[in-house]
Design goal:
About 55% of the residues lie in helices and about 10% in strands. The protein is built from 15 helices and five strands. The longest helix is centred in the last third of the chain and has 19 residues. One of its GO terms (biological process) is DNA-templated DNA replication. InterPro entries: DNA_pol_HolB, DNA_Rep/Repair_Clamp_Loader, P-loop_NTPase.
């Protein structure tokens, strides 16, 4: 895919295309930024552009070299990702062995290390010398959400290419063009940092169901003699939705924030815009400090979940606090 097909990231694309144009491609790059902001797509396009026989500073997407990358079978491109929870020293050694054979191509070989911040210390140390002095001409691309967790020595041997979160409007337009309903798209965009993350979330069968359940619980908890706690037992933990409580609490956080947005007349920022009629009738039932307190309840509940608290008890306590 050519660079212009990658959404956003104009600065990253400009830096890479300038290097290609000037024939000044570095031996190693560090693509750093939030997950889902296009690092892997950009890395593959950059690899295509390096191999491409038709274009100097882009991927034509049509020549044999570009198509080999597209189909995942280019002999001079190696992709590495964590084996389990980490990237291990044996994986780096295998990469080094693969690069010990010279290619018949005039272009350098390319390797992409996804989630490079998950390298073990031993793996990172093994990579160091290879980064500086590969046995054959090579270009390395390390992708890391949290580049600071990489060894400083690895960071210093790479050229950093920063990636920023995609603007929500760009993501919403892309999802709309793919036929995603606007209410679901707005919710997914607010819960993830990139378009790929949005798509992954939207593909989960439980996502739309969870959104509907959150709205039901949120509305019930505002009423007198609430049945929200009973609803939890019936609908959440008997259907498997209870496995995704972190998303539920994040949705509640957005819902309470929407109430604040309405109070402060920032309607354009409301996520659950399809619920505007309900929000307009209920936002002033609490003052701003109460809505902020509810947001804090949601954040605290998420922390409890991560500390392995009982999920059902955690949610029931949360709902009881809302009703009090």
């Amino acid at each position: 895919m050519p660079f212009h097909d990658i959404l956003g990231q104009e600065n990253a694309k400009r830096l890479l295309q300038n290097a290609l144009r000037k024939e000044a491609v570095s031996h190693a790059y560090l693509f750093s930024g939030p997950a889902g902001s296009g690092q892997m797509k950009t890395a593959l396009t950059f690899a295509q552009a390096i191999f491409c026989i038709k274009s100097q500073d882009d991927a034509c997407g049509e020549c044999l070299e570009c198509r080999k990358v597209e189909h995942g079978n280019h002999p001079d491109l190696q992709l590495l990702k964590p084996d389990g929870a980490s990237i291990k020293i044996d994986q780096i050694r295998d990469l080094q062995r693969a690069f010990s054979y010279r290619s018949g191509s005039p272009n350098p070989k390319v390797y992409i290390i996804d989630e490079a911040d998950k390298m073990t210390v031993q793996a990172a140390n093994s990579l160091l010398k290879f980064l500086e002095e590969p046995p054959a001409p090579a270009v390395g691309i390390l992708i890391a959400d949290n580049s600071r967790s990489l060894l400083p020595t690895v960071q210093s041997r790479t050229q950093r290419i920063p990636f920023s979160p995609l603007h929500p409007e760009i993501m919403l337009q892309a999802l709309a063009s793919e036929g995603v309903p606007a209410p679901l798209a707005r919710c997914a965009v607010s819960l993830t940092s990139g378009l790929e993350g949005c798509r992954e979330l939207l593909q989960q069968n439980w996502f739309a169901e969870m959104r509907n359940l959150m709205l039901q619980l949120a509305k019930e908890s505002l009423g007198k003699g609430s049945s929200a706690v009973a609803t939890v037992g019936q609908k959440l933990f008997k259907t498997g939705l209870g496995d995704h409580l972190d998303i539920l609490f994040s949705m509640f956080h957005l819902w309470f924030k929407d109430m604040l947005y309405f109070l402060y007349q920032k309607h354009e920022s409301i996520v659950f815009i399809d619920q505007l009629d309900f929000i307009s009738r209920h936002a002033d039932l609490r003052d701003a400090t109460e809505w902020v307190a509810y947001m804090d309840f949601a954040a605290e509940s998420t922390k409890k979940l991560r500390s392995n608290a009982n999920a059902q008890l955690c949610l029931e306590q949360f709902l009881i606090r809302l009703e009090s």
